[in-house]
Amino acid sequence: VEVLLTSGDRSSHSTNAWIWAVATRETIATLDLDGLDPTLIQDSADTLNLYIATLPAGQTDFSILGGFGDLLDSVDGTGIVVVGTIPANVQETAAAGIDVRKFAPAAISGETGADQDLPRLEEGDVYGLSDEVDPDGILATITDLQGTSSTDGTGIGTRQYLQPGNVIAAEYLFRKLESYGLEVHYEDFISPEGTLASNIVAEIPGRDDSAIYGVMAHFDSIAETFAIAPGADDNATGVAAALEIARILSGYELEHPVHIIFVNAEETGIVGSRYFAASAVRNQVPYEGIFNLDSIGSARQGQLVWLNSDSTSEWMMALMIRINEAYGLGQDIQARVNPQIVADDNRLREQGFESILVARELFGTSPYHHTSGDTLENMSVPNTTSATQLVLLTIASLVIP
Ligand SMILES: [Zn+2]
């Protein structure tokens, strides 16, 4: 592993004795492989169709994989499998006791690993952070998410969780977060239809990890036709904001860690955030407050921002109102404690994590949401930018000494 890390790479999967890694020819040429015995498994950096399958304890016979996919390599009971269609259906492998995980994409050579000399974020820096929010970066992310995940030739993508574009988007987000020097991992779960779906979690480090804050956004989309669900406002805007916040805060030494959490399969039953919350409880992650950004780019209602929570997280709404006033951000904030408004943040509160919804459109009000018309021209990049500034400054105020 050390050999990889010194080159700025990381393993994509490792067992006790072996490492599987995706690396360019240039990287391999620079590695000091003295005493190591590398084997080329696949002459391509394409990881979209790769999964890791682990057989039940003690078993090493991969014939029980059946028609799941082709075994590329294995170490004892763990193998790399290439599947024909993504997202892979893992219903039968799960029934056979086989654990399947998504193979992580290629590392971005030379960019992983934390910078040691980051400036410490202080109270006096908070206001200036709003100038660091880059509307062009937000525009680029929304353009990428609504467009490049297309696999059907329409030029408009889909991130619906049963579609290939969903896995393409997951890899895109994984690599974006990693390009900021962050630790990133997939959190896999089985969807109600039996496919393997992934949440993506990145960690911005902080000096005191007894309290951690979070920014959450669902990255899946939906429309009547699953293959044409661009989901620009719902919710490429929330994703773009969270990426900007990750990019900016990763340039500072923070008092507390901030986690960037992209959840999957929100649009049908709010599934991914339920898995996220359950695993955070299991791992006893000390989340003090998680901001769920969902559809923050509406062009229809000026600077209106809806916040929603229950009584446990009213302090987060009060803080956002205070930050908006203190820094003159000009947002028209409407705060509610309304259990009828249901989004990913409800799943967090159900598990005891304080969290709030941040939205410019509530579910069911936009004429574009959940249609093929939820595209860039029907939303506002400046409004996404100003909502991003409000959330960024609020979180920054929580992670200064
Ligand atoms: Zn949404």
Structure overview:
The chain is α/β, with parallel strands linked by helices and 401 residues long. 29% of the residues lie in helices and 19% in strands. The chain has eleven helices and 14 strands. The strands form three sheets. Strands 7-8-10-9-11-14-12-13 form an eight-stranded mixed sheet, sandwiched between helices. Strand 7 and strand 8 form a beta hairpin. Helix 7 packs across helix 11 and helix 9 crosses helix 11. It is globular. The structure holds zinc ion. Zinc ion binds next to helix 7.
How many extended strands?
Answer: 14
- The percent range for strand residues is 15-25%
Terminus-to-terminus distance = 34 Å
Overall mean pLDDT stands at: 93
Small-molecule binders: zinc ion
Radius of gyration: 21 Å
Helix and strand element order: HEEHEEEHEHHHEEEHEHEEHEHEH
User: How much helix is in the residues?
Assistant: 25-40%
Q: Order of strands in the sheet with the most strands?
A: 7-8-10-9-11-14-12-13
> Which parts are unreliable, with pLDDT below 50 for 5 consecutive residues or more?
none
Our count of helices gives 11
**Biggest beta sheet summary:** 8 strands, mixed
Supply the helix-strand structural class.
alpha/beta
Overall body shape: globular
